[in-house]
TrEMBL record, chain A:
Entry-linked Pfam families: ECR1_N, EXOSC1
SUPFAM superfamilies: Nucleic acid-binding proteins, Ribosomal L27 protein-like
InterPro entries (UniProt xref): Csl4, EXOSC1_C, Exosome_cplx_N_dom, NA-bd_OB-fold
Cellular localisation: Nucleus, Nucleolus
Keyword Cytoplasm: yes
Domain Exosome complex component CSL4 C-terminal: 125-161
Alphabetical UniProt keywords: Cytoplasm, Exosome
Gene3D superfamilies in UniProt: 2.40.50.100, Nucleic acid-binding proteins
Residues of the Exosome complex component N-terminal domain: 35-73
Organism of derivation: Molorchus minor
Protein name: Exosome complex component CSL4
Keyword Transmembrane helix in record: no
Origin: domain of life: Eukaryota
Automatic annotation (TrEMBL), chain B:
InterPro entries: ExoRNase_PH_dom1, ExoRNase_PH_dom2_sf, PNPase/RNase_PH_dom_sf, Ribosomal_Su5_D2-typ_SF, RNase_PH
UniProt record similarity statement: Belongs to the RNase PH family.
Keywords: Cytoplasm, Exosome, Nucleus, RNA-binding, rRNA processing
Major subcellular site: cytoplasm
Descriptive protein name: Exoribonuclease phosphorolytic domain-containing protein
Protein location: Cytoplasm; Nucleus
CDD domains per record: RNase_PH_MTR3
From TrEMBL, chain C:
Organism (species): Molorchus minor
Transmembrane segments: 387-405
PANTHER family registered for this protein in UniProt: EXOSOME COMPLEX COMPONENT RRP42, EXOSOME COMPLEX EXONUCLEASE RIBOSOMAL RNA PROCESSING PROTEIN
InterPro entries assigned to the protein according to its UniProt record, in alphabetical order: ExoRNase_PH_dom1, ExoRNase_PH_dom2, ExoRNase_PH_dom2_sf, Exosome_comp_Rrp42_subfam, PNPase/RNase_PH_dom_sf, Ribosomal_Su5_D2-typ_SF
Main subcellular localisation: cytoplasm
Name of the protein described by the UniProt record: Ribosomal RNA-processing protein 42
UniProt entry keywords in alphabetical sequence: Cytoplasm, Exosome, Membrane, Transmembrane, Transmembrane helix
Family recorded in the similarity comment: Belongs to the RNase PH family.
Keyword match Cytoplasm: yes
């Protein structure tokens, strides 16, 4: 693979003097990925290379959007050029993401939450989201009750629904693995799940209704999860 | 004049004492001659020489990205915050928004500034937004707003340019997707004398016609921001009284000035990337 | 107004063909109407309607103290009021951004002393000055606000009457000024160099002027230029896109060209140049009769509404000239009439366009070369105020300024 097209950035050389140049092999890319800056021309956009995350295409060339390093991922025989930031990536919830949220208001029809984490990335600023009554459960949707499923202060796992014209995110807990993870009883003590609809206070042993999530331990990988699902 | 009643404001009608000192009795012509003498400026710069720039990133820990710039004595801090939902908006916007706030510190100028934004600061905020709107890939964060705050600690001329340049660095530092790096430069013009990166006195003198050698002519200040690799002008602002030829000449001068600034910023950002990558690999 | 992609493409193609959606060419303006002196409480006012854009400007003058750092200068301030009537988007604080943008651009454009001399507003150094408030009310938004506002502001400032200061009494720190009590004893502001703003909009590969709402939406970037005579007093880039250097220079060239034409059209509409001379049968010099443009100092920049000719002929010998007077008046005795008595026949002619009283006075059409309704023709429009008149000024590029100048006083 000698078709190198990237800027090989010498740390001390002025970037501007460099044109489309020196060959970078895939191996070099792994060991010492080239650094790029916003607006930097990376390579021609053609059948072999296409623009991926962190890049944009303009007049047949691929340019970088970020200050970071270049990465090439091969997908379906096409080499996708990606740029990743060296620092923290800006995370924004998108459709289908599993998010961790905190409930803060409940009404008859919906409950309002703050999204605190997306996947395992903690957000610096929470995003507002809404969970409607009909999105609580997958089956018997009409029988679900907000106040029997969530209480203010609960930490829930939920999935982001497709973003509509509405301005806030919509969440859904209509999966076994989604729902309340951490909750406190009326007296403020932590509760433990006892069934998928109930939790019990660790101090007072009062039972309260919740839509409990079946928390999958982190070390269980997707394969075993699928197998388990099948066996169920 | 809007007054913030929650703060203790100074007496309404105060005047800086410097207006009454002897310095102030000098004519404009004299003042200008003191600034520019034999193709040299008061700080020993050539007419078209930019001041030295110092840039540092990551000063503001709570911000996603930040940059501090020193351009001569002009000092500006710019911080960029994570995208957030656009407040008070209900409709869906396909492109994200940029919110800019430009503020002079109360002690940054010779005359004390108020805590609230005045019209000049609002105008500068609008110009900053204009410069950055076409720089940031706004389609990447629909329905969100990126907040950018520029705070001038010391104003020694060309503060807006310094703020825009720093904002570009801060955005790159924050990892906000951008089409290009942005740099900005200011040019002051008084008749046939063009002063690149004017100091605050030079800028002030270029804002009004000063009689030189007995005649009054063209004068003005131009601020231009450029996206270098695409050769695009993202912001252009001029005040004064200038002919078309003056402006076309100025555009060329400013373009060259921007071209000279770019490597500095690139070098700094490359250093920053290398440093963070090293830190990351050490963490692992 | 939200446009879909297909509509935008349609607009874009129109611009490329040099045939815009409303039939204009790229450098054409939409028709304009201008009225001055319509707010009785204001010192000067103007209303400009540019197709669907409607702007009302009123000027108020107050006495103030000059800024300590500028003791010789008066003050000029612009306020833009975005009424929610203009567009529902302005409801609440919605119009704030537009208002600030316009007023800041205007202050920047008027800031240079070469353009508008604030020193003329000073009454007494460091103590008293005039403060001119220019209040701009947007009544309807149909695109191209900057241009419309700047034209209306210039017209309103031109119309402004500054009271004459008769006497200044200084008693210690107290300053008393006495203003002339005579109602019409006023001074006009010098606004000949006041800037005109022109928005040059880039659509596709071309630049256009006077964009309407649809075209504004299609534009990626535009340049607002403030032009005073042959100089730029402010240049501001607006819109969300960036421009290439050569495009910027193209925009500036187009902007200055159009602004100068626009300024000339406005000035023609505001002021009225008439031939002023007279001759009688006893005088041997007949240039005033035959060739009024040849009279030295025979053209006056009148501040009146009509150019007139009063020609007195003898009945016997028929057609022999007794006297001819070319002048300007606010209210002609007879607009167009022939009055006869026993010995004389008196022709009264009046007209409303620049130098239109150059004819012989006999024919109904005051100026001989202005017989047909072409350039510089006079059309009487009954029903719009007192002797209102429509003036059509057209240029080589079909830039129309229909100005209905109505005088209330």
């Amino acid at each position: 693979m000698k078709r190198g097209l990237f800027f090989n950035i010498d740390k001390s050389v002025r970037l501007q003097q460099i044109n489309i140049i020196s060959c970078v092999t895939m191996k070099e890319l792994r060991d010492e990925p080239p650094i790029c800056l916003p607006g930097q021309r990376l390579c021609l956009s053609d059948k072999i290379y296409t623009s991926g995350q962190g890049t944009y295409e303009r007049r047949g060339y691929i340019y970088s959007q970020l200050a970071g390093y270049v990465d090439i991922v091969e997908r379906d025989g096409v080499k996708v050029v990606e740029v990743h930031t060296s620092g923290e990536q800006t995370v924004v919830p998108t459709q289908g993401d599993i998010v961790t949220a905190q409930v803060y208001i409940i009404t008859q029809q919906h409950c309002k939450c703050f999204i605190k984490c997306v996947g395992d990335a903690v957000l610096r600023r929470p995003f507002r989201a809404i969970l409607r009554r009909e999105d609580i459960r997958a089956t018997e949707k009409d029988k679900a009750d907000i106040y029997k499923s969530f209480r203010p202060g609960d930490i829930i796992l939920a999935r982001v629904l497709p973003i509509t014209e509405a301005h806030t995110y919509q969440l859904s807990t209509a999966e076994n693995e989604l729902g309340v993870v951490i909750a406190h009883s009326e007296h403020g003590h932590p509760m433990v799940p006892i069934s998928w609809t109930e939790m019990q206070c660790s101090k007072t042993y009062i039972k309260e209704c919740r839509k409990v999530a079946k928390v999958v331990p982190e070390n269980v990988d997707q394969e075993t999860l699928k197998k388990r699902k099948k066996s169920e | 004049m809007p007054v913030d009643h929650k703060r203790i404001n100074g007496p309404e009608e105060t005047v800086p004492y410097s207006l009454f000192t002897k310095l102030n009795t000098k004519s404009l012509q004299q003042q200008f001659k003191e600034q520019v003498r034999d193709e040299k400026r008061s700080d020993n710069r050539l007419l078209l020489e930019h001041r030295k720039i110092f840039i540092k990133t990551g000063l503001v820990s709570q911000a996603k990205g930040s940059a501090y710039i020193e351009q001569g004595k002009t000092k500006v801090i710019v911080s960029v915050f994570d995208p957030r939902e656009i407040p008070n908006r209900t409709d869906y916007s396909l492109k994200g928004e940029i919110y800019c706030e430009f503020k002079f510190a109360t002690f940054s100028c010779t005359k004390r500034r108020l805590h609230q934004q005045d019209t000049e600061e609002k105008q500068y905020s609008a110009l900053m937004k204009q410069a950055l709107d076409s720089t940031v890939c706004r389609h990447e964060f629909p329905n969100f707003q990126v907040d950018i705050y520029a705070f001038v600690l010391h104003n020694d001329g060309s503060a807006l340019s310094a703020a825009i340049t720093a904002a570009g660095v801060a955005l790159a530092h924050a990892g906000v997707p951008m089409y290009d790096l942005i740099v900005s430069a200011t040019l002051g013009i008084q008749q046939n004398i063009k002063l690149l990166d004017p100091s605050v006195t030079e800028q002030w003198l270029c804002e009004m016609p000063v009689p030189l050698d007995g005649k009054v002519g063209n004068q003005g200040v131009i601020v231009m921001s450029m996206l270098q690799s695409h050769e695009q002008i993202s912001q252009f602002y001029q005040v004064g009284n200038l002919s078309l030829e003056d402006i076309t000449d100025s555009i060329k001068i400013l373009e060259n000035a921007c071209k000279e600034l770019i490597p500095l910023i690139q070098k700094h950002l490359v250093k920053h990337v290398l440093k963070t990558m090293k830190n990351k690999s050490e963490d692992k | 107004m939200a446009l879909c992609e297909a509509e935008k493409t349609f607009v874009l193609h129109g611009v490329e063909e040099n045939f815009r959606i409303d039939g204009r060419e790229r450098e054409d303006y939409r028709p304009m109407e201008l009225e001055t002196d319509i707010v009785s409480h204001a010192f000067g006012s103007a209303r400009l309607r540019l197709a669907n854009t409607d702007v009302l400007v009123a000027v108020k003058i107050e006495v103030d103290t000059p800024f300590p750092e500028r003791p010789f200068e008066g003050k000029l301030e612009f306020f833009v009021d975005c009424s929610a009537n203009a567009t529902p988007d302005f409801e609440g604080r919605g119009g704030e951004g537009v208002a600030i943008e316009i007023s800041n651009t205007l202050s920047a454009a008027y800031s240079s002393p070469n353009v508008f001399d604030l020193k003329k507003l000073c009454i007494l150094k460091g103590k008293k000055c005039w403060k001119v408030y220019v209040d701009i009310l947007l009544l309807e938004c149909g695109g191209n606000l900057f241009d419309a506002v700047s034209l209306a502001v210039k017209a309103a400032l031109w119309n402004t009457q500054v009271p004459l200061v008769k006497q200044i009494d200084i008693d210690g720190n107290n300053v008393e000024i006495k203003v002339s009590e005579e109602l019409y004893d006023c001074r006009k502001l010098d606004v000949e160099k006041a800037p005109i703003l022109v928005t040059v909009c880039k659509i596709g590969e071309h630049c256009i002027v006077d964009p309407n709402v649809a075209e504004e939406q299609c534009s990626v970037g535009s340049v607002v230029v403030a032009v005073s005579e042959d100089k730029f007093s402010t240049i501001l880039q607006t819109g969300t896109g960036s421009l290439h250097m050569s495009t910027l220079v193209d925009c500036l060239q187009l902007g200055i060209k159009v602004a100068q034409r626009l300024d000339a059209a406005l000035w023609d509409t505001l002021t009225l140049e008439c031939y002023t001379c007279s001759t009688t049968e006893d005088e041997s010099d007949t240039t005033c009769l035959d060739n009024p443009s040849g009279v030295v100092g025979g053209v006056t920049d009148c501040d009146k509404k009509y150019c007139i000719i009063v020609r007195v002929d003898y009945k016997d010998p028929r057609g022999k000239l007794a006297s001819i007077l070319r002048s300007c008046v606010d209210k002609p005795t007879y607009t167009n009439d022939v009055i006869e008595d026993e010995t004389h026949r008196v022709y009264y002619r009046s007209c409303r366009t620049a130098k239109c009283n150059g004819g012989s006075g006999r024919s109904d059409s005051t100026s001989d070369d202005n017989g047909s309704l072409g350039d510089k023709s006079t059309i009487y429009c009954p029903g719009i105020g007192d002797g209102a008149v429509a003036v059509t000024v057209s240029f080589s590029i079909l830039l129309f300024a229909y100005a209905f100048v109505r005088y209330v006083r």
